[in-house]
Amino acid sequence: MVTAEALAPAGPAHRTARNRSLPSWPVAGILLLYPLWWALGLGVLIFPMAAVPMVFLLLRRRAAGRPLRLPPGFVWWVIFLVAVVASIAALGADPPGTVAERAGDRLVAVVYKLSMYASLTVLLIYTGNLTEAELSRRRLVRLLAGMFVVTVLGGLLGMVAGNFEFTSPVEWLLPGGMRGKGFVKSLVHPYAAQIMDIVGDPKPRPAAPWGYTNTWGNNFCLLLPWLVVAAWASRGSGRKLLAVIFLAVSVAPAIASLNRGLWIGVGLLLVYVALRYVLAGRLWILLLLPVVGGLLALAVTATPLGTTVQARLDNGKSNGVRSFLIDKALDGFTGSPVIGYGGTRDTLGGRNSITVGESASCERCGNFTVGGNGQLWQLLYAHGAAGTLGYLGFFAYGLWRFRHDRSPIGIAGSAALVTSFSAMLWYNSLVTPLAFMFLAYALLWRNSIEGSDL
């Protein structure tokens, strides 16, 4: 029977208790529905969109009397954000050998990056403040494992249908002039692969749903450990077998990506995880490593993938460009060592001639981006020593702070951060790689508070 008390409005105590809880949907919605956001043309734009309700929900809970936790070492990240803002003062500078522009012309890209850094900071704080009842670590691990599955499926799509692309609903809504801009198109136009001449003829390199092949490779390394952890924690042997099969399948798009940084990252990942297990006294990992190595060698030598690997190793076309851009970044760092230049710059022509440049028929032809070939070089060039120290200091502090966590989450989370230090030599972290780094950090943080049991 329904009573008058049941029909009465909830009292202050009920409302306060409800306001203190944080729903999981802002985080789960990003991860679970990311293929939908990509297809709609939202992609990475979903992060600032989701940050708005996250901020509101955090402030509401704070107003209800529940304290807001900040991640360990957060002062380092604050130093980085302050450096990013301070470096805007140098936005009008034109370092030698770069294309001259007004500060206002560079401001759009800077505001975009700053908004993404701020949005991902909110994601980190929000995820770290969720409780087991609101979003369990087990479920978050499964969501991240699902993102690895999405990454591999996107890679397979890029292999078999490299020319697949379509106009997204968001893209349809944009004015024609804006829609054709390369930067805008990279945000709102879904495509399966980047067609690039790396080994002598144009070949598709997997990119879906991350926009760029390098981002695809970076995310592959960051997300791979979570599939293993999710399979480890599952009770059924069928799921474990399925994970092993899927890992075997993932080798194909990883090789087809022609991404040497990815290959190095996976190797570093395996070595780090093995080292952590050996230090924990779990010597059985020493028996497993040769088996994994042998299976990978067999996959490469007994299939056409071996030819792809050899062709990539024989064609180092990007080496000269990377060396050129690293030299430019370091030269720029000496010109503004404290706060950098506020953003990247385009070089005058290519590495062999200053006469090469963009035209109406070829946007950005010949103009390389200083700071566009790795997060470390971008930090040094765009935000100087202050920004670099804050950024590296935050993740290095996390690795040190959580070094004693030998749980599956502890090893997988720290492994993701370790591979990110390798990746910053050739990959940029915005947007999704940094999001996954933050989610790994949040899992380590919550493990230190709630206990290390998955």
Topology at a glance:
Elements: H1 4-7, H2 12-20, H3 25-32, H4 34-40, H5 46-63, H6 74-86, H7 103-129, H8 137-160, H9 169-173, H10 176-179, H11 182-188, E1 193-197, E2 202-206, H12 213-233, H13 237-256, H14 260-279, H15 285-301, H16 305-314, H17 317-335, E3 345-346, E4 369-370, H18 375-401, H19 408-423, H20 432-450
Antiparallel strand pairs: 1-2, 3-4
Report how far apart the termini are: 42 Å
Q: In percent, how helical is the residue content?
A: 55-70%
- H and E order: HHHHHHHHHHHEEHHHHHHEEHHH
Unreliable residue stretches = 1-9, 351-364
Q: Helix count, per DSSP? A: 20
Radius of gyration: 23 Å
Strand residues, percent: under 5%
Q: Structural class, from helix and strand content? A: mainly alpha
Instruction: Give a count of the beta strands, DSSP E runs of length 2 or more.
Output: 4
How do the strands line up in the largest sheet? Answer: 1-2
Which whole number gives the mean pLDDT?
Answer: 87
- Backbone shape: globular
Transmembrane segments: 36-59, 71-90, 110-128, 140-164, 216-234, 241-256, 262-279, 286-305, 380-400, 421-444
Keywords: Membrane, Transmembrane, Transmembrane helix
Organism: Actinoplanes utahensis
Protein name: Ligase
Please tell me about this protein's structure.
This protein has helices at about 5, 10-20, 25-30, 35-40, 45-65, 75-85, 105-130, 135-160, 170-175, 175-180, 180-190, 215-235, 235-255, 260-280, 285-300, 305-315, 315-335, 375-400, 410-425, 430-450, and strands at about 195, 200-205, 345, 370. Residues about 1-10 and about 350-365 have low confidence and may be disordered. The protein has a domain at about 20-90 and about 100-285 and about 395-450. With about 450 residues, the protein is mostly helical. The chain is globular and about 60 Å long. A two-stranded antiparallel ribbon has the order 1-2. Strands 3-4 form a two-stranded antiparallel sheet. Helix 8 runs antiparallel to helix 20 (about 430-450). About 65% of the residues lie in helices and about 5% in strands. It comes from Actinoplanes utahensis. This is Ligase.
